[in-house]
Amino acid sequence: MPGFPAPTPTPQGPTYEGRRLHHPDEDVVDQGASFDLQTLLSRRRMLGVLGIGAGTAFLAACGAGSSDGGQSSSATSSTAAGSIDEIPDETAGPYPGDGSNGPDVLEESGIVRRDITKSLSGGSAVAGVPLTVTLNLTDIANSAPYKDAAVYVWHCDAKGQYSMYSSGVENETFLRGVQVADAQGSVTFTSIFPGCYQGRWPHIHFEVYPAVGDITDHTKAVATSQIALPQDVCTTVYRLSDYTGSASNLAGVTLATDTVFSDDSAKLQLATMTGSAGAGYTATLAVGVDTRTTPTAGSMPSGGPGGGGTPPGSGPR
Prior knowledge:
Blueprint: E1 15-16, E2 19-20, H1 33-50, H2 57-62, E3 72-73, E4 79-80, E5 83-84, E6 130-139, E7 144-145, E8 150-154, E9 176-180, E10 186-192, E11 203-209, E12 223-228, H3 231-237, H4 246-251, E13 272-276, E14 280-289
Parallel strand pairs: 6-14
Antiparallel strand pairs: 1-2, 3-13, 4-5, 6-7, 6-10, 8-9, 8-11, 11-12, 13-14
């Protein structure tokens, strides 16, 4: 991008303006729309101090190249002139573990953590393809990164089981955790790729709270939604032995028929994926949160509790 310095090498990987690149092997201009949005916002703040308008030239330059290199699948949230669409509200389903239907992991010590592959009590990490999940939050009301927001993420394991609920893992708390958004509005979790159970497209749940002090009250969530995972990556992962049954379950559902994503085929919820089954994947999603609107999530969608589907060892999903 004209006028942009080269990324700064660090032990954790290349950075630009103190932020790690979403795609380390690509140029700054090829980091995706959510990274461009954060750069635009920081430039606007700088130009505002100088009394200069941001203009449209910057946006044009950002749009000059935005492809993902290597093995990737992408669906980018709609952005225009520094705006981002609000993430759709979705059901938390019957397995949230947030106290809304009984079990409450958000009251537990240690729930604020990056690595969610183990239960809070310890033990072995759950089996599966490594997955890094990064959500980049924008505070739509203030057109700025949603810093200090707390994000609670949870999903099923490779077998389709939910800790705290599925038979045999009721006393486990794996694949559940909270992170607090940094100054750029980003949170990152270390997890595994979820399996696909009958009746649902592969997905990851999340809730957004204004601050970490709010997580013990599920009614304070300002957004509840789900991340959809791209079909080509799912097909690759589900060939592996840890994911027995997932391939056949995936064959029975599409984004257009899924009871949660069917409204728009997950237009704003389909993650950008990079990586490989051998080395692990990274899923990235831009999440717009508008605190001026009233959250509508919590009620079950049509098609049965939680949107239909049956994880192994549990009741209707």
